[in-house]
């Protein structure tokens, strides 16, 4: 019934295999399979290992005629959104999330995608994939729509760990730079450290220490360190990579998404206000679609776990099929450019020469 | 040449006097006087004491024919944006900022407005106005456009202090509730504590402690405590008051503003894209203006310092005349409802009965 990984790889010549957790998202497996369908229709070069309740998945996959690109791994356990990471580590071996990471660990898939519980996903990833030598705290990096030439800025950590000392922040700067080079094609990324002001005396003690530390490593690492940046600079053209601790980064990310959602809602309401504004909306349809595509948080869905032996993409818990497809697209891009190995080399050389200079790949490319 | 405060008060029957720092903003005294002009044209019930270089101010005020509503206080010193608060406390007695606060301390004005250096303004306010008995850390509260019925949510602290322990956070909850009652007319404000997740085990230790503390005081204080909220909830209808430390709050505030600015820019660009979209923009002009008014951060310009003997409104450093006028409007509203006394009573009763239940006033009212 289900095909095995070998079939997947051979049938698609050189398919890139993505391991997908079908359970645990707010919208359940139907949305995940719909997202797989969307991806598959746009990019035939992806094969999927899909983890979850086989009974349910078989029906969903059949309905969308995805049998030839999907292999099902039956797992009965589901990590709930409110599960504690420590509990999941103890009792979560039968879950779809665990199985999803295991496929990357075994080398069956190149990248894992899950829209489940972030804390549990990071905990399982750390235990099963292990941290890269030299990395203290892995981080989650996200892409932020921006005025920069690439259209995106990288921000990290957005939620792997609520703490970060100056050494962690330095490492985030280096990992973020590698992501910007490989993912966005920026040869010499501009790095900023998030603070409540740009003056050097402001902020917490660890931020002042990190400010000095990153500055002293900038030349050697081939980055432009721009110093402290503020919340308003996150979507600006002043920086390519914004470095912060996971508590602050998570709040900023969700605040930005919340603001964008509020404005989108009100924009729609404004255009339904009168017959004249409805006519206007019709005339401006293309422009509005372009804008909405640009600011829609679903289109840049996917936080990437950095600092592990293997790549994991965390999709938004509430992602719909568009969001899931965006996360899969990101996973595919990272797999294609061999990001995991490049990042490992970069961390191993502990901020030496910029040897992971961009070779290819732009996350806003055509692959889907 | 310049009229004195007594004249100001008598000439306008019962004018409310606002003390305005004309220096120290990014755009200089011309923008501040322009903002005063805008306010004066909309609301004849305000008198102004304007602090700064008298030579410069005299010309600006004369040009706009504001002599009858403005008294000038000559001060040669200016607090720069990068000045350290400690330096300003030592050597800043001749500055326009110091003089602005002094007018509130002396009872000549009811509320002070400045768009200068936030840290210095808070330091001078704390030294000259002093903290309310029982308040450990004063906070800066801002209004956030939201889906709530009042159209705004209150968030605090957005930058008075980068630290806050559980007792501070409890006090912020009580002060924020008083602000929401008096400023927004919400009888029983819903209070949320900003965190990286809504589950009880998430976040830093002081947040877990504050969560318990605020919950245990909610009934007595006449508030609805909704528990942890996330960044995405800030502009939502789930809460009226968002409580956080000044570091996180400042980052969130500026991130929200940055996102709104980015989208506004792109919206304008979208409507200039083609002749058709320009026509559409023309047709949708009213709707777009309504939207832009709603999301324009300048229209809700003004952080209020809470926890002092006297009210101080901190305008955005980069505020233009629209922003300055919004800050003055906010100052006027707070002066009219006697907010300073009500807050003091609330803090004195240390979270007792909701005796400062709303009597009047809505910050989105008609006064300007």
Automatic annotation (TrEMBL), chains A, B:
Main location as per UniProt: cytoplasm
EC numbers on record: 2.3.1.274
GO cellular component: cytoplasm
InterPro entries (alphabetical): FA_synthesis, Phospholipid_synth_PlsX-like
Pfam family for this entry, one: FA_synthesis
Reaction catalyzed: a fatty acyl-[ACP] + phosphate = an acyl phosphate + holo-[ACP]
Keywords: Acyltransferase, Cytoplasm, Lipid biosynthesis, Lipid metabolism, Phospholipid biosynthesis, Phospholipid metabolism, Transferase
Pathway: Lipid metabolism; phospholipid metabolism
A Gene Ontology BP annotation from the UniProt entry: fatty acid biosynthetic process
Cell compartments where the protein resides: Cytoplasm
MF GO annotations: phosphate:acyl-[acyl carrier protein] acyltransferase activity
Keyword Transferase: yes
Assembly description: Homodimer. Probably interacts with PlsY.
Annotated function: Catalyzes the reversible formation of acyl-phosphate (acyl-PO(4)) from acyl-[acyl-carrier-protein] (acyl-ACP). This enzyme utilizes acyl-ACP as fatty acyl donor, but not acyl-CoA.
Similarity comment text for this entry: Belongs to the PlsX family.
Name of protein: Phosphate acyltransferase
Biological source species: Falsihalocynthiibacter arcticus
Gene: plsX
């Amino acid at each position: 019934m289900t095909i095995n990984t070998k079939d997947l790889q051979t049938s698609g010549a050189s398919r890139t295999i993505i391991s997908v957790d079908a359970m645990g998202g707010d919208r359940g497996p139907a949305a995940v399979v719909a997202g797989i369908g969307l991806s598959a229709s746009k990019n035939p070069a992806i094969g999927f290992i899909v983890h979850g309740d086989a009974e349910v998945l078989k029906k969903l996959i059949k309905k969308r005629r995805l049998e030839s690109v999907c292999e099902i791994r039956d797992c009965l356990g589901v990590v709930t959104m409110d599960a504690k990471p420590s509990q999941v580590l103890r009792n979560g071996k039968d879950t779809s999330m665990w199985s999803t990471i295991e496929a990357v660990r075994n080398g069956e898939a190149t990248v894992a995608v899950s829209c489940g519980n972030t804390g549990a996903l990071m905990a399982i990833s750390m235990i099963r994939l292990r941290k890269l030598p030299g990395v203290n705290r892995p981080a989650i990096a996200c892409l932020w729509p921006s005025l920069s030439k690439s259209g995106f800025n990288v921000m990290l950590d957005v939620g792997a760990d609520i703490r970060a000392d100056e050494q962690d922040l330095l490492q985030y700067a280096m990992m973020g730079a590698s992501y910007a080079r490989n993912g966005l094609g920026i040869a010499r990324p501009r790095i900023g450290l998030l603070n409540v002001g740009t003056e050097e005396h402001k902020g917490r003690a660890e931020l002042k220490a990190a400010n000095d530390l990153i500055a002293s490593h900038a030349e050697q690492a081939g980055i432009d360190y721009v110093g402290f940046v503020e919340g308003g600079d996150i979507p600006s053209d002043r920086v390519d990579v914004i470095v912060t601790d996971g508590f602050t980064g998570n709040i900023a990310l969700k605040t930005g998404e919340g603001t964008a959602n509020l404005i989108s809602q009100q924009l729609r309401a404004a255009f339904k206000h009168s017959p004249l504004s409805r006519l206007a909306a019709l005339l401006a349809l293309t422009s509005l679609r372009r804008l909405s595509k640009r600011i829609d948080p679903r289109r840049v869905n996917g936080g990437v776990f950095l600092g592990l032996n293997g790549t994991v993409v965390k999709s938004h818990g509430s992602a719909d099929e568009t969001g899931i497809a965006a996360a899969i697209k990101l996973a595919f891009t990272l797999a294609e450019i061999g990001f995991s190995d490049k990042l490992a080399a970069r961390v191993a050389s502990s901020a030496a020469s910029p040897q992971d200079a961009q070779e290819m790949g732009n996350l806003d490319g055509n692959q889907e």
